[in-house]
Amino acid sequence: MNSEAFGETFPLFNTSNPETLDGLLSVAEEHEYPPGRAVLMEDSWGNAVYFLFSGWVKVRRLVGDNPIALAVLGPGDFFGEMAILDESPRSTDVIALSDVKLLSVSAQRFIQTMFKDSQLHHRMLQLMVRRLRQTNLRFQLRNRPPAVKLASTLVGLADSYGKKNGRGVRIVNIPIRDLADVADIKADEAAKLIEKLTAKGWVAIDKEQNAMELVSFKQLSQLADHTG
After folding, report:
1. Is 18 in contact with 25 (CB distance < 8 Å)?
2. The domain spanning residue 185 has which CATH number?
3. CA-to-CA distance for 16 and 119, rounded, in angstroms?
4. Which helix (H) or strand (E) covers residue 190, if one does?
5. How many folded domains does the chain comprise?
6. How far apart are CA 168 and CA 157, in angstroms?
7. Which of 5, 97, 149, 182 lies 20 to 30 A from 224 at CA?
């Protein structure tokens, strides 16, 4: 991957200078994981930042013996930054939901680069604030109907990571339990809602490609914005 493609793939670097990108690429390591494989484990010390070149992962936390999905991340995003910034063990796992290709940069090199490139430092802060706003949005939705929560989750993932095609917007086919966790609804509610959306033709599941098509994206967006 050249520096131009690197900058275009990852919004974190869209304001960085070419020297920054070339420097990071020169030390980046490539990784590949199949679906279901643990990419990072809770309680491991933060020694790198990971950039998701292709594929999807879920971020989860173990509550007792129960894994709870906190977020789903797609191509162009990154993770692992919190553990290196506060120099503490990770508090979450990251599990591949599909075939995944990652680039990793060591914690020391990434922190050094941030101090040298003020644009990268500023961009990192912007994206972390964006994640905080997304968390606040989920909190604001806590009393909304399950259908609104689910639609908001699907639309948010499509806006952030989805690929448009002639049919709609394509995202990964997230397991029902994980989708329910991220949307903050019950698993049986999520299953019934996906069945209804599929029957209405708003959503289509492609099991062979491990994908979900948001066919009626406009209607889903309207449902997500529903305030009733």
Report:
1. no
2. 1.10.10.10
3. 6
4. helix 187-199
5. 2
6. 13
7. 97
